[in-house]
Write a structure and sequence with these properties.
This protein has about 500 residues and is an alpha/beta fold. It folds into 2 domains: about 240 residues, P-loop containing nucleotide triphosphate hydrolases (Rossmann fold, 3-Layer(aba) Sandwich), CATH 3.40.50; about 240 residues, P-loop containing nucleotide triphosphate hydrolases (Rossmann fold). About 50% of the residues lie in helices and about 10% in strands. The strands form 2 sheets. A 5-stranded parallel β-sheet has the order 2-3-1-4-5, sandwiched between helices. The longest helix is centred in the middle third of the chain and has 24 residues. The protein is globular.
């Protein structure tokens, strides 16, 4: 589905298109419809309802034109437009869906995709591929719908004869001749095959809350009328539900989805945090850091992205482990992402949005000091999200990590485990040492009082998100030296394994 149809193109062909719409369509008051839609948009913003609008269709069907017509009824301060063919070099090296997740709307905003994730899907389906892509799309839309996003998907339909006429007319005009590609003509020649693919894609991805709406592309007036009526009705329905407190979309499990398989994991209480380092620390540290630096350059040359995620008890030694890790690396090839409480902008998006925006490119290393797992720990225990949200989050995070893995990313996840008494000793040492008092806060002491709740939450997290493609490593961390060497060795082993797999 190449985006060849700009607004000028349809305007150029309008005067020759048959005006076969019924009288009531010809007399439809578009001015009044635009005013109504604009008013509804303001309410959408006030009620903080995010909206995704997808405009798909045949080459030369008029996606660009219809997008322009729709935007005439919207306040430009409340929407963003993404044209699929305009994604450029900034997306090279990221997972495929990075370009879409990072552009999803905040609460109260609208994102209009002119061409979308369906472009590549349908091209692949025509070639007999695309099964995995189809499932990924369904899951992404599923996650968005379960987060309260209103998803409106439109397909502009035109006949083979009409498409051929428009492509020919565009080629004959100086202003539009460069917009027609060989792929557009190939689609027209293979119209029947593409039609079957489009129908299949719509049927497979049509579900409650993310239905497809077919627009009559042969008639601009009827097409615009249907577009306005559908968007208006969807806005009214979403507003009515929001004002009634209806959160039926906030469910504990993703619908029509079999959870990804997890690996067996020991319960947290089975790990003994009091492990001792049996070799000389300085020698072991020097050897591990030299090994990591060498591997970093190889990973860079091979274009393998690396994500290293740290979680653990307060005062478990995450910062110290990260420092020994970064001391081994070339500063030009990594970044450390300290994750704190989400900002207002981050809260306005899906909980994984802020992590999609922080992913490494191919060959880069990204180190997360706390992670997306805050959803099922602090947010769960402190009531910062609903129960269905944190229950649903286990599978959402598994799917997120599966996307990274499928894009070739090495994923190392660490939980630093210390016992209750060791944490107390470290807290008191920090509080009694002036140079370390900045490390201890009242919130740390409050969290300590909830140790049993956090311990249960952490154990459930490990059981439900320990997968073959993104396994957890529990680091026994009462002995900081032992913990640091285990972290460095685990990262190096994972890099080596990825390099061996890449070279096969």
């Amino acid at each position: 589905m190449s985006e060849t149809d700009q607004k000028t193109e349809w305007n150029e062909t309008d005067e020759q298109a048959p005006l076969n719409a019924p009288m009531e369509e010809q007399e439809y008051d578009f001015g009044q419809a635009e005013e109504k839609l604009l008013a509804l948009q303001q309410e959408i913003r006030q009620q903080k309802i995010p909206v995704v609008i997808v405009l798909e269709g045949w080459s030369a069907a008029g996606k660009g034109t219809m997008a322009g017509e729709l935007l005439e009824g919207l306040d430009a301060r409340g929407y963003n437009v993404c044209v699929n063919e305009h994604f450029g070099k900034e997306e090279v090296g990221y997972p495929d869906f990075h370009r879409y997740w990072t552009r999803m709307p905040a609460k109260g905003e609208i994102t209009l995709f002119i061409g979308s994730w369906y472009d590549k899907l349908c091209s692949d389906l025509v070639k007999g591929k695309g099964k995995r892509e189809l499932e990924r799309i369904k899951l992404m839309e599923n996650m968005l719908a379960c987060d309260g996003v209103v998803i409106l998907k439109f397909f502009i339909d035109i006949s083979q004869k009409e498409q051929k006429r428009r492509l020919k007319e565009m080629e004959e005009k100086k202003r539009t001749c460069t917009l027609v590609s060989k792929e557009d003509w190939r689609q027209n020649k293979e119209y029947d095959q593409w039609e079957k693919v489009y129908i299949h894609a719509r049927q497979e991805t049509d579900a409650p809350g993310r239905e497809w709406h077919l627009l009559p592309g042969n008639d601009k007036r009827a097409c615009k009328k249907a577009l306005y009526e559908t968007v208006t009705a969807a806005f009214e329905e979403a507003l009515a539900k929001s004002k009634a407190g209806d959160r039926s979309w906030d469910v504990p499990q993703l619908s029509d989805h079999e959870p990804l398989e997890t690996e067996r994991m020991q319960h947290l209480q089975m790990f003994d945090p009091a492990q001792a380092l049996e070799e000389d620390y300085k020698s072991a540290l020097n050897a591990a850091q030299k090994r990591l630096k060498k591997l970093q350059y190889e990973v860079y040359r091979e274009g393998i992205p690396v994500v290293i995620a740290f979680e653990g008890w307060d005062a478990a030694g995450k910062g110290g482990a990260i420092r020994r890790l970064t001391n081994a690396l070339d500063v030009r090839g990594y970044e450390v992402e300290p994750i704190a409480a989400p900002t207002a902008e981050e809260k306005a998006h899906h909980h994984l949005w802020r992590f999609w925006t922080k992913l490494p490119k191919q060959g880069e290393i990204r180190i997360f000091d706390r992670t997306w797992y805050g959803r099922v720990m602090v947010e769960r225990i402190e009531g910062f999200c609903t129960e269905p949200q944190w229950q649903r989050a286990y599978e959402e995070m598994n799917l997120f990590e599966k996307e990274l893995h499928d894009a070739g990313t090495v994923i190392c996840k660490f939980w630093l485990q210390i016992d209750n008494e060791e944490q107390l000793r470290r807290f008191e040492a920090r509080q009694n040492t002036p140079d370390k008092q900045w490390k201890i806060t009242d919130e740390d002491w409050r969290n300590r009082e909830k140790w049993p709740q956090y311990e249960a939450a952490v154990d459930e997290m490990l059981q439900k998100t320990h997968t073959a493609f993104a396994p957890w490593t529990v680091v026994e961390a009462d002995n900081k030296q032992y913990a640091r060497i285990k972290v460095l060795t685990t990262v190096a082993d994972a890099m080596e394994k990825a390099l061996e797999h890449k070279k096969k």
